[in-house]
Design a protein that fits this description.
Blueprint: E1 5-13, H1 20-29, E2 35-36, E3 49-50, H2 64-68, H3 72-88, E4 100-105, H4 111-124, H5 133-137, H6 141-150, E5 156-157, H7 165-178, E6 184-191, H8 196-204, H9 214-217, E7 233-241, H10 242-247, E8 254-263, H11 276-289, E9 298-300, H12 307-321, E10 329-331, H13 334-337, H14 344-358, E11 360-361, E12 383-384, E13 389-396, E14 400-407
Parallel strand pairs: 4-5, 4-6, 9-10, 9-13
Antiparallel strand pairs: 1-7, 1-8, 2-3, 6-7, 8-14, 11-12, 13-14
Helix pairs in contact: 3-6, 7-14, 11-12
Length: about 400
């Protein structure tokens, strides 16, 4: 028999706030984190706008030695996980550490390590490549370092499914608790890919917006959308078996009730044009939760602001929900923080948790002009209303689809 799973802690480092309180205040203000890229000279690059973290100092979250040996995507995960664990009130000295696990997704690892060490190889020779190159590069080091930092000795892994990595990681952590492999899981996603290789690579795919005006760069679902803006950061949650949480008197934010995934089996970068794959992932999550489709009235969409994603995700919602699709509020957190790639699902999950907790659905910032065939409610304005369920979608290159469903907690 599967066990109930609740959210008892959340943490976030984002372009509009380096903790949940500041991030959520920014969300409610409709604040955006977009601006000219400052991490490198973008002369000659097609894209020059990104959503960078502001004033992030890793030594505020870990000691200098750990910070020095950790790439940015790892630093962000350690920071957000630390906030989530503290928020949960989890005391590892009172826990069986082998029943507290970690699953933190990441899409691309450290492109910066690749740039740096390849330059050393070419210009100084193979003996000058850092002995820490590989452990600083690989994607699993976010989960690995978080477990080391906080003493989590339970099930430890990460899911790498491009832009669906964070949502898949939370979903698999949810399953791990449901079926008794862990009592607590620290789960989410992290990414730091605003660097020459990252920006030039995604630009070559024609995925990034080339807009130079930050206010017009990320426009999910708008007719004038021109591609996504790269963001960075991490979103982490503490998931916990319900009775375990109650026994220690933990605050409960929400309950995780459904998880679905699927594959488009269509194209390495484009979603399936009819939306069937994404529709199946959403349907699987809803069936997993044991609710009717009509019970769902809010979706935090993948909503990247690329021409294909927003259209095909809209088709997916219409395909699954039919006429009820017009009764669903749909927004995109990427309208404020950009696309965090493997970290997107984690930050969007934290957003959903806060929306369910407070009864607030944020607006899709910048959305003004409806596009043909896209006639749903994309939240031109914010709504203050009860949010009984929130469904978060993530769609990754390779045709990976993931949906996670949470509900307002009730005994």
């Amino acid at each position: 028999m599967s066990r109930r799973v609740v959210v008892t802690g959340i943490g976030a480092v984002t372009p509009i706030g380096l903790n949940v309180e500041d991030f959520w205040a920014g969300i409610k203000e409709g604040k955006t984190g977009f601006g000219p890229i400052t991490k490198f000279d973008t002369t000659g690059y097609d894209a020059s706008v990104a959503a960078e973290l502001k004033d992030f100092d890793p030594t505020q979250f870990m000691d200098k030695k750990v910070a020095k040996r950790s790439e940015a995507f790892v630093q962000y995960a350690i920071a957000a996980a630390g906030e989530a664990i503290k928020d949960s009130g989890l005391d590892m000295e009172k826990e069986d550490p082998y029943m507290v696990g970690c699953c933190i997704g990441n899409g691309v690892g450290s492109m910066q390590a690749n740039e740096r060490e390849y330059d050393r190889l070419v210009n100084k020779g193979p003996s000058k490549v850092s002995p820490l190159y590989i452990p600083m590069l690989i994607s699993n080091m976010a989960a690995g370092n978080v477990s080391i930092q906080y003493g989590l000795k339970g099930k430890n892994f990460d899911v790498v499914t491009a832009c669906a990595s964070g949502t898949h990681s939370i979903g698999e952590a949810f399953r791990s608790i449901q079926y008794g492999e862990a009592d607590v899981m620290v789960a989410g996603g992290t990414e730091a890919a605003i660097c020459p290789l990252g920006v030039s690579g995604f630009s070559a795919l024609h995925a990034l917006s080339c807009e130079t005006d930050p206010a017009k760069a990320s426009l999910p679902f708008d007719k004038d959308r021109s591609g996504f803006v790269m963001g960075e950061g991490a979103g982490i949650a503490v998931l916990e078996e319900l009775e375990h949480a109650k026994a220690r008197g933990a605050k409960i934010y929400a309950e995780v009730v459904g998880y679905g995934s699927s594959a488009d089996a269509f194209h390495i970068t484009s979603p399936a044009e009819d939306g069937a794959g994404a529709a199946r992932a959403m349907e699987n999550a809803i069936k997993d939760a044991g609710i009717a489709k009509e019970d769902l009235t809010y979706i935090n969409a993948h909503g990247t602001a690329t021409h294909m994603n927003d259209l095909f995700e809209t088709r997916a919602i219409k395909l699954l929900f039919g006429e009820h699709a017009k009764n669903i509020r749909i927004n995109s957190t990427k309208s404020m923080v950009g696309h965090l790639l493997g970290g997107a699902g984690g930050v969007e999950f934290v957003t959903c948790v806060k929306e369910v907790e407070e009864g607030y659905i944020h607006k899709t910032v910048g959305y003004q002009t409806p596009d043909e065939e896209m006639d749903l409610d994309y939240c031109k304005e914010a709504y203050e209303e009860e949010v009984p369920y929130a469904l978060s979608n993530s769609l990754g290159f390779g045709g990976h689809n993931a949906s996670i469903l949470i509900k307002k907690f009730a005994e």
